[in-house]
Task: structure prediction
Amino acid sequence: MNDKWARIIGAPVIAILMQFVHDGPAAFNDWHTLLPHVGVSLTITVTIWEGIRGILVLMRRLFPRYDQTGRRLLFQTLSSLVYTYLATVSLNWVLQVVVGIVLCPQGEVWHNYLANLVPTLFVTSLYESALFFGEWKKNLQRSEALARAALQTELEALQRQLDPHFLFNSLNTLSALIDDTNAEAQRFVEQLSDVYRYVLLSRDKTTVTLSEELAFVDAYVALNKTRFRDDLLVEHHIAPGAGAGTVAPLSVQMLIENALKHNVISPENPLRVTLQAEMSPANAGYVSVANNLQPKTGLSTSTKVGLRNIIDRYRLLTQQPVEVSREAGFFTVRLPLLS
Result:
């Protein structure tokens, strides 16, 4: 808490003002009397200021979240009132015993306590105002950052809009031009069209059903099996009902793409990818993508941009974390199934 100068300047100012309120302008006519009185007032102010400040710091640590603000203010107010009363009684006794100054006659401690609530309210208001404007500034900066990101995303989407539609339409034209006897080429073009159709349909969606994503994954895997043949083995283990769960679009496909990109695939070292969807009794679950590790050599280290992108997307969609593990020769990523 950067409040050094507020404490250095604020406490003496409050002490002088309290003395002025207590004794009036006549108190400033006699400096010999004024200085000891201001010293006592400063002692009281510093004691209350530091104590209230400590209470505020403690309460912010105990109740840091925004939804705990009401609870924090309640305990903070009660603690401040109790502390101010105890400080008033203690200071009255100490000054009377040690210095011989009687701040108030016996039985009038309550009036002195009410007077000491002024620095208590001032300090509390000062720190709460600083906290409020600090959070307001952070939220404003966060909103501006999100607005800039949304604008950039919209611009990039507009820049890319022509290419997918043009390619998709071109694939349909190419499919019509291919000889009917070339079944393999016809099937490849149709699968590529399915892939781009899904990309076009899902790019404006926040989530898609697991069934839709897996149908897209099948088309994507079929395209790659044209290249890798039996060197690429993909298995599905999908629990009943799991297909109705939702995932971020292209997230499962991106994990398979990463596996193809970063691992050796050959007849001697086939790549085995396992897709598994688990469901719990509470209808929450995970879909996992696991592959055997056989990293390519002679390439630069992966930046993990794709995986980090998936993790960031899921952080916005759910509080359940994306789980990543590398053990027993397998690389596994588990994505939460969303309701």
About this structure: The beta strands are 208-209, 232-238, 246-247, 271-279, 285-292, 323-327, 330-337. The CA atoms of residues 56 and 76 lie 7 Å apart. The longest strand covers residues 271-279.
